[in-house]
Amino acid sequence: MRSLLDLARRYWATISRPSRYFSLGFLVIGGFVAGVIFWGAFNTGMELTNTEAFCTGCHEMRDNVFVELRSTIHYTNRSGVRAVCPDCHVPHNWTDKVARKMQASKEVWGKVFGTIDTREKFLDHRLELARHEWARMKANNSLECRNCHGSDYMDLTRQSPRAADMHSRFLLTGERTCIDCHKGIAHRLPDMGTALRSP
Amino acid sequence: MRIIAALLVVAGLASAPVLAQSGTVDALRGRTPVADESRPPPLGNPENKDVRRERAYSMQPPTIPHKIDNYQVDLNVNACLGCHSRGRAPVTQAVAVSVSHYMDRDGNFLAEISPRRYFCEQCHVTQVDAKPLVGNAFLDVDEVLKRAPPPARTAAKPASHP
User: Fold this and answer.
1) What is the interface pTM, i.e. ipTM, of the complex?
2) In this complex, is the C-beta atom of A157 within 8 Å of any C-beta atom belonging to chain B?
3) Measured between CA atoms, how close is A5 to chain B, in angstroms?
4) Distance between the two ends of chain B, CA-based, in angstroms?
5) For the whole model, what pTM was predicted?
């Protein structure tokens, strides 16, 4: 502990002293350039983890949830506009994104220790994993849905009568949010009997 | 009678050109040789009008008047019951599943949908606006009743008094 304090004191003595060899201009401009490079690298690295190729790089995602997504309308449809994993599962706002990425360190832990490395283990955990996502979307008022599906821009007259009725009764009044009714639209659902019984 | 039957067969063949051309009994394959893969017909677009249809006969399971693409019906969940179950129907204004579907084969009423009725699509199906492949002369019983000549009124015999 004492030696650690000594070390800190010595470093502080070094970095608090004015530079003897480098000009102020070099330090300012060099610091700026280094900052740009660091920031760019950090963001680019984070964006790399925000791609479908990265998500499906592990068999846990590729063989379970990604396979299920492929037959849904969010993967294949008449116009070819589609959602990739982070569109729904990572907040788009920068600070929220970093917060979610820090949370995802738990997922690295799960990967290292093989929490869901077989189909059976995945199915055992499906309810828990689904609940995390439902809770997250409920808490942010289905923000990731609304990034594309804005309720203000929905033309109810172009919807089927039952969709228009449900949306005007529950969505537009703010009584419910997207995820309340649209669970399991992109992946298979867990045992909903259990899910609804014990919250 | 035999002539009528023969005429019916001919009429049936004429209205099913695929059958007539191929000379085979398998209308689904059409003229494709057995060794080749046939080209599947384009998928229909199920009607999504949400207007209940008439039943063709009184015991017909009602057809589904909306799309059911990707509705999950398995051990984990029955997506249909998300709206049509007894408890959900008042909220969703969907047609509640008939009480008969809560009954087991011994006639006991169960709290939940009877397992033998669980897989909705065994009986209830969506419809596409497709031209029928063959003609159909089926008459609804109401129509049969309408067309039937009025029952001849037989003069009631006066009761013979002893």
Assistant:
1) 0.77
2) no
3) 59
4) 49
5) 0.77
